[in-house]
Amino acid sequence: MVYLDHAATTPMRQVAIDAWVEHAHAVNPGGQYGSGRAANAVLAQAREDIAELLGADPVEVVFTGSGTEADNIAVRGLYRARTKEGAPRRVVASTIEHSAVLETVKSLAQTEGAEVAWLEPDRGGHVRDLSALDDPAAVATLMWANNETGAIQPVREAAERANAAGTPLHVDAVQAVGKVEVDFHASAATTLAASAHKFGGPRGSGILLAKRSPVPLPVVLGGGQERGLRPGTVDVAAAAATAAALREALDEREAENARIAGLRDQLIERVVAAVPGTKVTATEPRLAGHAHLLFPGAEAESMLMLLDSLGVEASAGSACSAGVHRVSHVLEAMGVDARDGMGALRLTLGRTTTEEDVDTFVAHIADVIERARAAGSL
Ligand code: PLP
C-alpha cells in the first residue's frame, strides 16, 4: 500500500501512542482529590510543553476536540466579543480557507449580520493583496498553509496590518504546525488553531492558542474548563499524546522537511515527464510534502478509483457532495478553469513515505491517467 494522503491525516507516532496508553486511566482533572490532582498535573505538563513548543504562554493553550472546533470558537467567538463592544460587523477572510473557517464566516454573514471582505489568492495559491485588512473589522482570518495546495500564506504581515487597524487575526495553522516554524507570539496573531492528527498525534484533539485579550466569547456553554472557551471534561491522555507528538515532530522537522521535499520534487519531476499535459499548481513558498497536480481531461473520481485499485491512496483535495464532483473552491479562487480543476490530484507525502512509494506511484501514473482520460471522453 502506498499512502499519499498525509495532509488528511498522518499515522500516530509511537511516542504519542505510548503517552496515550500511559495516561488512559487519568480521571477528571477537575477532581478535588489525589487522582484528580494527578490527572491535572499531567494536563498542566502537556499545556506547558505545547506552550513552549509553539511560542505561547501556558494560559494561552486551550485544548479542543478538533482543529475544526478551534476554528469555530476563534472566528465566531471573536466576532461576538468584538461586535458586543461596538466593533464594525465586518469580517475579513480569504476565499481559500478550509471549510472549518469558511462555513463559520458564511454563517456569520447569514445569521449574525456580518459583511465579509474577501482576500483573493493569485494563480499560485498565495494571498498577496492584503489591503482589505486596512479597514477595521470585528475579526480577520487567514490560514497559515492551504490544505489543498500547501501554499504558505503571509500571516505575519496580515497580522501586523490587521492589528494596525485594531482587528484581531485568527490563523488556521492546522496544516502548518509541525511542518513550518510556528511561534504564536512572533506571529502577532490573536488566536491560532492546530490539530494533533496532522502531526502524528491522536485524531479528535485540537489546540486553540488564544491571547488573554481580546478573548473570544464562548461558542459552546457549560462548565468553566479551558478558560470557559471549551467547556467539557478535558481528555488528559489526548493532551499528553498531543504534546509528545508535537515535540517529536518539531525535533525531526528540519531533517524530515528536507527528505520529504526531495521525494516530492522527484515525484513531480517524474510525473511531469511521464504524463503529457500535467500542470503543477502551487508555487513557493509551500509545504514540503504537498504535490498538487492537474491532469486536464481526467476526472478525479476515476483517477482515485484506479489508484485505489492499485493500492495507492491519494486525494482530490476537492469537494464531493452527493456523488457530484465539483472543482474545489480553492482552485476556483485561483482562477483554474473547470476542465483542469476536475482533474486535480493532491499527493501529500509524510513521515512514512519512502523512495519506493514514489517509484510505485510513478510506475502507475501514466497508465492511470490514460485510462481516466479515456473514461472521461466516453
Ligand atoms: N483547517 C485545515 C487547514 C485543515 O486542513 C483541517 C483538516 O483537514 C482542519 C482545519 C480541520 O481539522 P480537524 O480535522 O482536526 O477538525
Automatic annotation (TrEMBL):
Pfam families in alphabetical order: Aminotran_5
Membrane spanning residue stretches: none
InterPro entries recorded: Aminotrans_V_dom (IPR000192), Cysteine_dSase (IPR016454), PyrdxlP-dep_Trfase (IPR015424), PyrdxlP-dep_Trfase_major (IPR015421), PyrdxlP-dep_Trfase_small (IPR015422)
Coiled coil: 236-266
Keywords: Coiled coil, Iron, Iron-sulfur, Metal-binding, Pyridoxal phosphate, Transferase
PANTHER family linked to this entry: CYSTEINE DESULFURASE, CYSTEINE DESULFURYLASE FAMILY MEMBER
Name listed for the protein in its UniProt record: Cysteine desulfurase
Originating organism: Corynebacterium hadale
Lineage: Bacteria, Bacillati, Actinomycetota, Actinomycetes, Mycobacteriales
